[in-house]
Design a protein that fits this description.
Elements: E1 7-12, H1 15-26, E2 29-34, E3 38-42, E4 49-54, E5 73-77, H2 81-90, E6 95-101, E7 106-112, E8 118-124
Parallel strand pairs: 1-4, 5-8
Antiparallel strand pairs: 2-3, 3-4, 6-7, 7-8
Length: 130
């Protein structure tokens, strides 16, 4: 198998509101839209495309365990997370978890879009002396 692209599809109540969040704060651009109910967003770097589909997802087959994922977080690894934190604060972006270092050395912050989609930005910073 050779994967040539990737996308994350998010089923939301208001696709246009999520599109404004991703384009306004995270540098995505809209590459396709069908009546503002199906919007595809992309970037020019290695980020996965974001597909916003307004309304509930078609019911997938029941997983063998009887449960599917309960909460989903979209995570992007970035460079200069401190600069991104400062920029997002200047933009009054909806930061829901402030920039912090996790015990394993990763720095992270979280934003939440108007539909409740959690987006985490992370940067690995090796501990001093590593």
């Amino acid at each position: 198998m050779n994967i040539t692209a990737s996308a994350v599809t998010l089923h939301v109540d208001d696709a246009a509101a999520s599109a404004r969040f991703f384009t306004g704060h995270l540098g995505f651009r809209q590459v396709m839209s069908l009546d503002e109910e199906y919007i595809c967003l992309s970037r020019d770097d290695d980020a996965a495309d974001i597909v916003l589909s307004q309304g509930p997802a078609e019911a997938p087959p029941e997983p063998a365990s009887g449960r599917g994922p309960q909460n989903v977080t979209v995570t992007f690894t970035v460079t200069s997370i401190a600069d991104e934190d400062a920029r997002l604060r200047r933009e009054n972006a909806p930061i829901t978890t402030s920039l912090r270092q996790k015990p394993w050395g990763e720095w992270a912050l979280q934003l939440t879009d108007p539909n409740g989609v959690v987006v985490e930005l992370v940067e690995w910073v090796p501990p001093a002396g590593a």
